[in-house]
Design brief:
With about 120 residues, the chain is mostly beta strands. The chain contains no helices and eleven strands. Strands 2, 4, 5, 6, 9, 10 and 11 form a seven-stranded mixed beta sheet that branches. A four-stranded antiparallel beta sheet has the order 1-3-8-7, with no helix packed on it. Strand 4 and strand 5 form a beta hairpin. The chain is globular, with a radius of gyration of 13 Å. It starts with a strand and ends with a strand.
């Protein structure tokens, strides 16, 4: 099991930027693909971005391509999500999660963090 703790959320104006971090502990972090998901109030949790264990491949939801960047530092056991040009509709709780392979499907992820709130004001 991997323990995951997200940070970096907060309040930002539309068009602004935030960088989320997800610190991992427990089993070897570098063995896992990592993903970011988000859940807006009253809506289902949806995929945002994912990265392979090596960082060599990434995948993004169409809605964030060109604005969000996922990266990882295996030496620091941390995965990041750089979010630029944020929109009010992207207000949500953002979760990081660990999986055995790169996936955009939530059920493929084994361990989840508790989430960090991102609020984008108009």
């Amino acid at each position: 099991q991997v323990q995951l703790v997200e940070s970096g959320g907060g309040l930002v104006q539309a068009g602004g930027s935030l960088r989320l971090s997800c610190a991992a502990s427990g089993r070897t972090f570098s063995r896992y693909a990592m993903g970011w998901f988000r859940q807006a109030p009253g809506k289902e949790r949806v995929f945002v971005a994912a990265i392979t264990w090596s960082g060599g491949s990434t995948r993004y939801a169409d809605s964030v391509k060109g604005r969000f960047t996922i990266s990882r530092d295996n030496a620091k056991n941390t995965v990041y999500l750089q979010m630029n040009t944020l929109k009010p509709e992207e207000t949500a709780v953002y979760y990081c999660a660990a999986a055995n392979y790169l996936s955009a499907v939530g059920h493929d992820y084994l361990d989840w963090g508790q989430g960090t709130q991102v609020t984008v004001s108009s």
